[in-house]
Specification:
By secondary structure, the protein is α/β, with parallel strands linked by helices. It has twelve helices and eight strands. The protein is globular and about 50 Å long. The model has no long low-confidence stretch (mean pLDDT 97).
Length: 292
Amino acid sequence: MLKGSIVAIVTPFDREGNFDEDAFRNLIEFQIENGTDGIVPCGSTGEAATLDHNGHTEVIRACVEQVKGRVPIIAGTGSNSTSEAIELTRAAKQAGADSALLITPYYNKPSPEGLYQHFKTVADAVALPQVLYNVPGRTGINLDPQTTVRLAEHPHIVGLKDASGGVSQAGEILACTGEDFAILSGDDSLTLPFMAIGGKGVISVTANIMPAAIKKLVTAVEENRWADARHQHLALLELHNILFIESNPAPVKAALERMGKCSARVRLPLVTLQPQSLEALQAVMLRYGLIS
C-alpha cells in the first residue's frame, strides 16, 4: 500500500471559500489517469489545519467515494491534541480510508517520550494502519530515529513520511527496521536519495500538477534504471523548488488555477501568491510546458 508516487492532494475551495467537491473529484481523476499510486487527503497540502471536523470528514468521504478502491487513501488525521487525533483517525476509518497519516504534535513541543506515548495511544485506540509524519520545519519538533524505531514495533504503525530535510535519519531508521516498515520521502527534491537508501517512494506536492512525471521517476528507481531516474530527478528540481516560493500550498494551487483545474484560493492565515512570486511561478510553468 505504502509505495510509489503518492500525491498530497490539495483541497480546492470555491470563490466563497467553501469546499469545491466537483473540482476535488476531477483532481482525483487526473491523478489516477496519470498513474498515481495513492492519495493523501487532508494533509498539510490539503490545508487540514483550517478544516473543521465536519469539513475534514467531508473531504475524506468524497475522496473515498471518488477513488472507489482504485488506489489506497492515506488520510491526514494528526493533531497536537492526542484525543483529537484519535477522533479524527476514527472518523477517517469510518469514512473508508485505508490508512492514516499523523503529523507530530506541533506547538506543544513534547519530549521523545511524549511523542512515543502520543502515537502509541492513537495506534492503540484505532485499528487502522498509521503512518507517522515528521516535518520539523512546520511543527518545531523532530521525531528522532530512536523513538521512530520504538513506534515501528506497534502493529498499527506501518511507516513514516520523513520531511526532516535530509536522508540521515531515514537511514538510521531503515538500519533498525524490517521491510514491513515503509519510509516515504516528504520532500519531492529528495525522492531519489530516499529511494536509493531503501525508501519506498514519495508523498508528493509536485504530483498535483505533474503526476505522470513523478510516477516516471519512481518507476525508474523501482526498475533499477538509475540513469533514467537521475535524469528525471535533475529535470524536476526547478519545479520542486518554485512550488515552495511561498508557503505550501499557495504556489501549487496557483499553478493548478493556471492549468484550469481549481481555484488558487487558500484559507487564512495563508494568502494567494504575491504578484512577483506568481510571475516567477508562471515562468517556470512555461518552461515545463504546463501552460502556454
